[in-house]
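Re: that chain you flagged

S.,

Sorry for the slow reply, it's been a week of failed gels. I finally had a moment to sit down with the sequence you sent. For the record, here it is as I used it:
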Amino acid sequence: MENLTALFEKQATFLHEEAVMSHSFRIKALTKLSDAILKYREEIHVALKADLGKSSFESYITETGFVLHELAFIKKNLKKWMKPTRVSTPQKILFYSKSYSRHVPKGQVLILSPWNYPFQLLFSPLIGAIAAGNTVVLKPSEYAVHVAQIVEKIIEEVFPEKYVAIVQGGADTAKNLLKLDWDLVFFTGSTVVGKKIAEAAAKNLTPVVLELGGKCPAIVHRDANLRVAARRIAWGKLINTGQTCVAPDYLLVHSSVKQKLLKLLVIEIENMLGRNFKETAAYGRIINSQNFDRLNTLLENTNIYYGGNRDRDELFIAPTIIDNVNPNHPLMKEEIFGPILPVLTYEEFDEAVRFVKRREPPLAIYQFTRSNTIFDQMQRHTRSGAILKNETIMHLSNLRLPFGGVRQSGSGRYHGKFSFETFSDQRSVLKHSTFFDPAMRYPPYTAKKWNIIKKLLP
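Prediction finished late last night. Pasting the structure tokens below so you have them in one place:
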């Protein structure tokens, strides 16, 4: 704990010395980070393969390439975002005044990242924190050990620890970090742990950003393009072996098209991955034996329509479809976070809306339909961080969209400009001239002043 306190105080001193870090300072830091990622990209991909079994292609599109894309986007726009925003000033009240708002750094920021996208979900918030002018302490997940090592190598090579530092460790390290008086804590992970983070931060009234999870539904109406729906749902579910917070967690399909959709799902899974999933480079592994055992338990007392093969020694679970799931089954009680897709049906669309609405709001809802009316109905009557028509996951690729959850699926938004804003405070600035200082605002208050004020402030 003493070392953590010393690091915290060192960053506090640096923040005081630098005050508001200039645009050129921030751009230089982001450029050095970008160069380092390019330099170590292959090593990062090797580490992701070792931890999660990811292919280089998937590692690039979901981890390194994603981060490099966001780096370029933020560098291009940062100068514009940093400019003060002028607002109108009521001259009847504030004579000869100017008003504007500006973004200022939060200050000292703690970022706690998860194991499922151990590179992207550490560096993406880091980019926002640097762009906004903060000092940062990073704690990567202890479960993705190989990525944690290469991340430490990059951070220590690029930044002095008084500016950006990395701290390795498990739950006890996180608890000790949370005892410090941060200006913002940014956490990505499970809802259960998110509650503990919020509770710990509340002791210092520290603001928190919580990027959590939830059971994202894929709802397929009878009028949907079933082949496209099957392909996009299968891809969204199986990328990173289902270990994605915005993966379709369960399938809710109109009973009249269920059988056809399930057959198409199998076809699309095998088109993408073949039939020998163990030997397919594009298909990864479960992060560790603890999560394997949890998923294995969830498969008990289920009707396996497709897949179901498991190998604990290799942390392998095949793409698995579970048909005729009881809504009270454990599969429907927690976020699955694996390559298992439960299937439920509905008869009338109102029934589907009610089913989604009765559950905790997810990070995303995926509605497959040709009808704008159907989509609008789902949009009006439910809550979620995002809602997509005829697509899964791809809203993350648009950095002009905010990303985040609602209630149990999280709080706060980031990506692109929203990251810059999340790691900033908006500061109001008023510049008032001393050229004219009317007496009516000061006591004693007379009837004459009262009449004037009533005219000025109707």
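What I noticed first: The mean pLDDT is 95.

Talk soon,
D.
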